[in-house]
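quick one, 275 residues, struct below
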Amino acid sequence: MWSLEPILAKLAYADSDFLQTSAIRAIVVVFTAFLYVLITGARKLKVSKNQFSTILYIAIAGTLTGDLLYFFALTKISVLNAVMIGHMQPVFIVLIGFFFLKEDKLTKYDYTGIIIMIVAGIFVTTKTVENLSMVKLGTVGDIYVLMATAAWATTAIVTRKYLRGLNAGVVTFYRYLIASVVFVVYLSFKSSLVVSNIHQILVGIIVGVGTILYYESMKRIKAAQVSAMELSTPFFAALLGFLILREGVTVMQIAGMVLLFVGVCLLSRKEEAYF
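---
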């Protein structure tokens, strides 16, 4: 799902902008989540004040900040760059847990994994040995995705910590409903809230399903396993980016994908205490 999302977003940009696409996406996710709530028999969308406060933070940090930065960055960088940097999220989760939650001490595996993942990110953003030798470490678009990744990491922590027992569809529903309200109000004043193409709807369905599956997995398996399984995303993104968007992949970027896998495996040596 996460590898299809940027592909569909870029296709949607053919006759719309990132803000309009983000708005339609959010609205479609709301309907997708509501349907999931009905199918799973949860039926009730009621949440406590504390749960709603947490979801409000997730909506602001994860959707209105992280997702918007990510969608804007997609107008400037390749799908592979965006997906690879986005999957450096475990680095931020470890660092946030160490500096702010004070729940864990970093091990030698953590330090090694973080260093390797940073090197992986540099390999992907520089693309070639020549760029690396000239210290061309990436573009502004890469920085936007890095900022989005940091925002997503904070939402992963609070979700795991405070919303673990809540239905995944309910969390997704309110997260994107809050964002949808903001988008609708803003775009209504600009008279640009229209569906420009089918890709905007498809990306909403993909994100809705992907987000629900992500939250469901967080309840059932270790956080480290979730991160490790998500490593298939860059490989699918690279393949789909080439087949559909004709985006090339360099040898250094392939090396970066391998290093990303190694880095997350090292971070996974520690249990899910980061959450």
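Residues 239 and 247 are 9 Å apart (CA to CA).
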